[in-house]
Structures are given as structure tokens and as C-alpha cells.
Design brief:
Blueprint: H1 3-14, H2 18-25, H3 31-38, H4 46-55, E1 60-63, E2 71-74, H5 86-106
Antiparallel strand pairs: 1-2
Helix pairs in contact: 2-3
Length: about 110
């Protein structure tokens, strides 16, 4: 399983949408997340994988395949953001919809 599939699997298990992950990472919209997770190119930058995993409440571990006792945790050394309440999630989606509608009206 590659890193894109791992992130998608974690998102599904947590009930996270691309929109929610995008918001947690500070992106303006889900387009960036969609492009990263569904690009035909192989691989994602390590820092992006670590940020996504951290926001999803996971750690990235590097394990020495020759010495099972050696492992290192790669991460941001900060707690993942708290789960959004339904009201916060609705407010975030309304704000994104408002911004989208503004852009459509300008074009």
C-alpha cells in the first residue's frame, strides 16, 4: 500500500472528507488534497505525508529493518487539532460555500 492509499484509508476510518483534511491543513479548498491523493504521479513529498498523518492523529515511524529495536517517529511534535464539532464543521462549510459563490459571481 502506498502513502496515498494509507492516507485515504485513515481518512475513511476517521470519517474525514477531503474538505475536512484540507481545512485542517490550512488549504483554501479540497482541490489541493484531491490533486495530491489522486495524482497519477508516484509518491508524495514526505513533509506532506507527515502533516496529513499528524492532522489525522497518526505518527509516521521509520523502523530499522535490520534492527527491530530501532525506530524513530517523524512528526510535527504538536498535538493534532481537536475534532470539529458538527456546528464548527457546518460553519466552516458555509464559509467555504460563501467564498465559492463569491468567486462564481465575479467570473
Amino acid at each position: 500500500m502506498d502513502e496515498k492509499q494509507i492516507i485515504k484509508t485513515i481518512m475513511k476510518a476517521r470519517g474525514w472528507s477531503q474538505e475536512k483534511l484540507s481545512y485542517a491543513l490550512g488549504y483554501k479548498g479540497q482541490t489541493n488534497i484531491n490533486a495530491l491523493l489522486n495524482a497519477k504521479t508516484k509518491g508524495m513529498r514526505m513533509d506532506i505525508v507527515v502533516k496529513m498523518a499528524t492532522e489525522l492523529g497518526c505518527e509516521v515511524v521509520i523502523r530499522d529493518k535490520y534492527d527491530n529495536k530501532q525506530e524513530w517517529i517523524v512528526g510535527m511534535h504538536e498535538e493534532p487539532e481537536k475534532e470539529l464539532t458538527k456546528d464548527e464543521e457546518i460553519a466552516m462549510l458555509r464559509e467555504q460555500l460563501r467564498k465559492y459563490q463569491e468567486q462564481e459571481n465575479k467570473g
